[in-house]
Write a structure and sequence with these properties.
It is built from 13 helices and 8 strands. The protein has 251 residues and is of the alpha/beta class. It has one domain: Rossmann fold, CATH 3.40.50. A hairpin with a 2-residue loop joins strand 1 and strand 2. The longest helix is centred in the last third of the chain and has 23 residues. The radius of gyration is 18 Å and the shape is globular. Bound molecules: uridine-5'-diphosphate. The site of uridine-5'-diphosphate has 14 residues, from helix 9.
Amino acid sequence: MDDKKVSILGIPFDNLTRVEFLARLLARMEANQKTFLVTANPEIVMYAKEDDEYYNLLLKADYVAPDGIGIVRAAKKLGTPIKERVPGFELMLGLLELSNMHKKRVYFIGAKEEIVEKAVNNAEKLWPNLVVAGYHHGYFDHSDSAMIDHVKSVEPDLILVAFGFPRQEKWIHEYLKAAGHGIAVGVGGSFDVLSGKAKRAPKIVQKLHVEWLYRLVKQPSRYRRMLALPAFMQEVNKQKALEKTKKKRDS
Ligand code: UDP
């Protein structure tokens, strides 16, 4: 049952809790299995519909986590409920916690120079046993393989890539082709939060599942991106109607 994937608009999500995700990722880290982890929100799912290359990339991920309540609602609507939402930011914190406990090597790549530096400083304070294999800002030519060679050469067990989608997943795919091991995950704007530059919504807002509204108020420039959510739900309704028609026809 655990291993069942739940397809939402063609993206195969793993139906695992946060704890189950972390347990599996730790096992893979211990076994030196390279792993492509994607945390996908409705915006990413909608984007993948428009970009075939990106869509095919997502199909190659070892794990796809349901990042956000929109995905959970969609799964329920489609009659294939998933256990819980697994926010990318929390998965990142969990992976850092595990890396700290097991003395794993972490590479931070992405965001502006001063942001990634602060994020790494904060991470070192929060997790004193963390082994920082290195860090680099995210404003370089992403098609230049020199960076892949560099990161690979310091042999990280965990690579956090904060370029925003689809850039981060495209880079990770190339990186993992070259690297021998490591868990690589795109973490979007998480370094901005870890550095203290951007704030996550207060606990109560997160509980009420209206984090998107809080973000919108704090950062009106996100408005255009937020429009992906209603369009996403509309697509989910379409998928549901299609499945209903198919069922009727087949019965
Ligand atoms: N970013 C980066 N390199 C780039 C573009 C963006 O490192 O070429 C970083 C940016 O500084 C931010 C993160 O990627 O920390 C997320 O950026 P954005 O908000 O544009 O991405 P989204 O949240 O839309 O995926």
